[in-house]
What we know:
Chain A: It is found in: Cell membrane. With 299 residues, chain A is mostly helical.
Amino acid sequence: MSRSAYNPANRLRRYVQTLPAVLVIALLMGLPMVMMGFVSIVERAPDGGVHWGEFTLRAYSNFLFEESLMGGVELNTDYVTIYIRSFVLSGLTVVGTLLIAFPAALFIALQPQERRNFYIFLISIPFWVNLLVRNYAWILLLRTNGLIDQALIGSGIISEPLDLLYTDIAVAIGLIYSFLPLMVMPLYAALEKFDFSLVEAAFDLGANRIKTLFYVIIPGVRPGIVAGSILVFIPGLGAYVTPALLGGSKSMMIGNLIENQFGAARDWPFGAALSFVLLIVVALAASARILFGGKEKHL
Amino acid sequence: MSNRFQSLPWRLRGLRSATILLFAYLYLPIAVLFVYSFNGGAMATIWEGFSVRWYGEVLSSANFRAAATNSLVIALAAAGIATVLATMAALGFRGRKLGGAGLMMPFLSFPLVIPEIVTAVATLIFFISIGVPLGLVGLIAAHTVFCIPFAFLTVKARLDSMDETIERAASDLYATPLKGFYYVTLPLLWPAVMSGFLLAFIVSLDDFIISLFLAGPSSTTLPIYMFGMIRLGVTPAVNAISVVILVLSLAVVGVAALINRFNRI
């Protein structure tokens, strides 16, 4: 097959084969993205939708300022607060998943080959369970007089329900739970290739466990840590399901704010602007990997 | 390999318990949900004895059935179309480097890196602006887009590791390109095509946000139906719906894993 690849008819055939998939993504994803950028700079129509010809940057200034009832302009920090909360929660999710995943990934990487594959298989399974289902399970656990309360009250550790559900803590727990497999995989991939004779050498040279961890293992698997952090941070930032199910009205994240613009608020340009900013942040986060990720490439 | 770093584990103690905790964290919520879906009582989190009554109620609900049918139709169509397109593309990229491949190939994984909510917003704006009605057809089109990378990466991985000499032998023995493809390439590639299809199928089945934006009143999917039920209240019926969705996805994953296991060459 590959020998005949030199003739022009063959090249044409290969282009005809590859183009449909590329075109589908260009037309149904690329073009809509461009359109979204355009919608973010036109005037909104009050019933949802937009006035195509009237350009305005209102959607972007809306982010910080709002028109007061008197007709002046006032600072409004509500939306910035939501953006900051999203960044903090996604950052916490990265730290949380890293702390939980690292020891386990290290343990798995030290196992014999067959057991390693089995462990990794077990970690990947929950990832294929619907996100809604996984987050819903935490409602059963966290709700007032739910299963965690029942267990803790039953064993006499607490006497009053914890009231965890609909708080930022619940959202953080849900986010960490949702994206944990995304952290384990690249960490494991890096640790699996790590040369552990270096650790033995460190121990032989008198380094303790903490020093070995920070001066030998962590620098050695840095690309894995960076990849995992970005893989967790990006979906965390755009999360909708977890804050919608586990968060209260005060734990809204960017995703919920965006959704709101296409539902109750009917402000398409603002929703498009919020999405566009999110897209840019994600692109920046993804390029951070190239800056800090070192030479190695991971999925 | 089994005595890899025998001198290490005692120095790295604590790792085993950390791993056990990780697995407990991953599986306990799912296990709890599973157990409580068989709760006979009327409250979601107060156990009142074993029963399958909620499964009976859920499975006989007309709304649930309609949602399940929609989900399956969309997943089947989107994953099917995506797999055909992705397989063609993967075959096209094979062999001598194609001009523009460096640009086109990353483009095919583009949907993977875009936050779902952004895709949902952009697609909604696009569909409304050009007049695509919200409903099954639009949903299938949108699902096809994000299904493509899953099928493409799976098929491409298989092609990259495939031994070209067998195909070369076929053409040396005067097989026409079409015959060579049909009798040699395709049988070797088939398991990857199937598992690519199944992965795409699950991803489509599980999609929530994009479907939420694009579904019309008569094209509710299972996750949207479940979300609506949760909004109405945390009830044992929702537990049962969750487990039905969970079992459905895991069954498909299981089949994909089996296909991979039995066809490893």
